[in-house]
Amino acid sequence: MKHSLPPLDSLKAFEASARLLSFTRAADELCVSKGAISYQIKKLEQHLGQALFKRTTRQVLLTDAGQLLFQQTQLWFEDMAKHLDSLAVNHQQHLVIAVTTYTAVRWLSPRLSAFSQAHSDLQIQLQHTINQANFDSHGVDLSIHWQHQQGDCQHFVRSPLFPVASPQLIARLPAPRLKAGQLGSEPWQQVNLLAEPREEDLWQAWNQGLLADNPRQIIEDANVRVQAAIDGQGLILADDLMRTEIDAEALLPVSQDVLTEAGYGLKSYTQSGQQLLSWLMDSTH
């Protein structure tokens, strides 16, 4: 759309002169001659049809019209600077990773530091809706999803599940060792199991497919579930991402049996996602 705005150079010359109340200092700031400043101011005054400065032998002062225009040009320039900064940020390519906070903190984050340093042009964003029923991969570059079977993914990082408990809970257990198939029967029937809300019963899967009707405590957040296990609230199915707690003996294995077909499925949706996926696989091996 055609507009009748004055030239930007004239507005810049005016704003600097009005702010500094000096054509000479404005010229120095804009790296032009004093004559160029005077010329741009004159063009602007002709465009508006009124004087913007009161000129004396020693200084320049703003007229009422000049004062109003100065206030407005400052707002324009500040607003334009904000929009230009926003555009500069938006030009940086985003890389969106769908991942739970549990996996992000314990597995992904240590591997992202080197990748971020090597790809400073990418702005990494973590999205934590991967486990939601309405999860939509639109706008996602890479997803990392825990799954029992390999399923629909490009790479599958195996991470078997095995039962662990806090030392204080182990001291109260009915037997020193639990075997797959014993849950749901004496003496293990009353032991509390920590679980997540999912259609598949992972405790039953670990229990050789046998129903485990033990008391359950359903905790959606995996990090909260781990803390509940540390606090002695029940058994939890652990994987290698809990190695810190296990090495510190905050949680200890209570069985040698594992659910082997479990792990993390990685799937890329874009070229940037594939680039990160390859990096992660190289760092894993």
Lay out the secondary structure.
Elements: H1 8-20, H2 23-30, H3 34-48, E1 53-55, E2 60-62, H4 64-90, E3 93-98, H5 101-118, E4 122-127, E5 142-147, E6 155-158, E7 162-165, H6 167-170, E8 193-195, H7 202-206, E9 216-218, H8 222-230, E10 236-238, H9 243-247, E11 252-253, E12 263-268, H10 271-284
Parallel strand pairs: 3-4, 3-5, 8-9
Antiparallel strand pairs: 1-2, 5-12, 6-12, 7-10, 7-11
Helix pairs in contact: 1-2, 1-3, 1-4, 2-3, 5-10
Structure, described:
There is one protein chain. The chain has helices at 8-20, 23-30, 34-48, 64-90, 101-118, 167-170, 202-206, 222-230, 243-247, 271-284, and strands at 53-55, 60-62, 93-98, 122-127, 142-147, 155-158, 162-165, 193-195, 216-218, 236-238, 252-253, 263-268. Helices cover 41% and strands 17% of the residues. It contains ten helices and twelve strands. The strands form four sheets. The protein has a five-stranded mixed β-sheet with strand order 4-3-5-12-6, covered by helices on one side. A three-stranded antiparallel β-sheet has the order 10-7-11. Helix 1 (8-20) packs across helix 3 and helix 1 crosses helix 4. It has 285 residues and is α/β, with parallel strands linked by helices. A hairpin with a 4-residue loop joins strand 1 (53-55) and strand 2.
